Amino acid sequence: MRRAERLAEIVEIVRDGRLHTARDLAESLEVSDRTIYRDMDTLAASGVPIEGERGVGYLLREPVFLPPLALSSTELEALSLGMAIVREAADPELQEAAMTLLGKVEGHASIRRRSPKSWGFGVYAFEQAKPGFVHMPLIRRAVQERLKLRITYVSLAGDKSERIIRPLQTDYWGRVWTCSAWCELRNAFRAFRIDRISGCFDTNEHFDVEHGKTIEDYLEKIAKTFEN
Amino acid sequence: MRRAERLAEIVEIVRDGRLHTARDLAESLEVSDRTIYRDMDTLAASGVPIEGERGVGYLLREPVFLPPLALSSTELEALSLGMAIVREAADPELQEAAMTLLGKVEGHASIRRRSPKSWGFGVYAFEQAKPGFVHMPLIRRAVQERLKLRITYVSLAGDKSERIIRPLQTDYWGRVWTCSAWCELRNAFRAFRIDRISGCFDTNEHFDVEHGKTIEDYLEKIAKTFEN
DNA sequence: CCCAAACTGACAGGTTATGTCAGTTGTGTT
DNA sequence: AACACAACTGACATAACCTGTCAGTTTGGG
Known about the structure:
two-stranded antiparallel ribbon, WYL_dom (chains A, B), DNA binding (chains A, B), DeoR_HTH (chains A, B), DNA-binding (chains A, B), WH_DNA-bd_sf (chains A, B)
């Protein structure tokens, strides 16, 4: 089974998002270039989206992993429930992802045979599309990449304000999403309800992890509040 | 790659939970017994928990599937969020499954490399362990296997009652779980809040899908209610 | 004890994978 | 426009691997 392992190894190497030439791969895997080209065919046939450009090299745009997982039926059930909730309770981008993921998993004959498509879950976590939800993908990206955002926020009292925030975490409260952030207008931590964010723009400005302004600091502060 | 396909096929066949002899497998896959024995070695080496007993046959206890999935990072994010919610919002059995599933996925080196362990999600779907939650696994099983249950229910008004129900679906409402069922006491559809089910027992009695008493009928009835 | 069926080892023959070589075709750079 | 680079392709010999056959051994159950 050296071949199968090598195929996995190629994906491992290429998924770092950088360019790799067939020769480099061939050297590090101790096979000939030709073998690499053949392997690339096989991978492409298996649906791995590796792109090869002549004169350039190979690139794996979409991060991919292919672990041959062994899931118990309870884990499969948890996956199914989780995706049902995400499909209902998250923003369109994650909804889409949840559905394609579930599709990939249920598409495998082994599962179709056992589950009559339904696990008996009903999920009604949300009313129809909440207003601020279109901004969720941007907010999530901002959290991950430490990107400052400029938002227009309408408070529960109805006051409109414009702020620069450092989004630290997105929070799910069962039926409501909020974003925990450091607010540069108030110079303090604030939690913004996603459905009350009417405008949201990328500032193209990154923020550093500053002592006292991290999500851990925020959570700690909240914990202390509850102690009293 | 006929070998790789055959290995997958073996798992496919054996995962029905019944006994299979090497000879039967060999016949249906059109190879010799010897090849099956060699394949079993390979599968065992790959970590598939197939058990073989001399004089008996092969058995796969834990249902398993091993689809070499290719997930996008967004799908991975959806999976992570979904499991975070399930870990917070579901019963202990599914919580456990969600954690082991996430463990299996994140355990794969390819992912560890990219995600700094956290996706920036905070999930606070529930207070601490709700009372009725211990019954959830039984209820889920009952839904899937059409098993009647005998429950002790405390209504919102505080009235205690004992009923035989035919559980049709478990419903997640963001912060609350209910069970949609046909209630044999009231002879009508009822939705029971899980946290108000104080007792729950298996009656060992199955129910048939009766016209007018299915989950589809219930959902239709609810839809009509909203029309008015 | 006997049977069934999992297991093991050896070897020949077939199939597949690989390396070598000799090209062609795009892409980016000078 | 010429050039370098690297993806690609085809052909063929050889090495590696897989498979079937056969002849056993081991283990659990009746």
